[in-house]
Specification:
By secondary structure, this protein is mainly α. It is built from nine helices and no strands. The model has no long low-confidence stretch (mean pLDDT 90).
Length: 171
Amino acid sequence: MFNELLFSDPSENNIYSYRGYFTTSIANTSDYSEKVREYEKLSKLDEKLLKLSSDKDLRTETASHYNDFGWFALLSKDFPKAKMAISKGLELDKTNVYLIGNEPHILLFNGQTELAAKKYLELKDRVFSKGSSLPTFKDAFLADFKDFKSAGFSAEDLEKIESIKKKLISK
């Protein structure tokens, strides 16, 4: 039904209305997989809007949506979707610290452990968010690792995380 509505009335105002519906729907569910499904639909709307307008704020907002899509795909252990979403987000906004911070996670969970470790170490001392509880990327990574553990990642994935965590803390 979503595709039928979108393609039967793809005006900019209706696309914005549909986006509002999906952002509300996403906010109202705690199930990571459901959030991923809703972000898939939201990203289609964002892409349609980007074809109608090259507005910088829209690009930034769409990149942020892709980051959230990628984050919830990570938490639901759908690593291919997470990789796609983070990559698309970075294409739109290479300065988004959340996208930058999720990139090594994507590498790690897609089997590129050495490259991920290099990226984590490269970023760890950079400023993440001044004046917050996450001043450096290292702080953000450690917080993310707790979220992965809470999300019930496999023993193998948790082992990868522990290996990276040791490197972040020791260097």
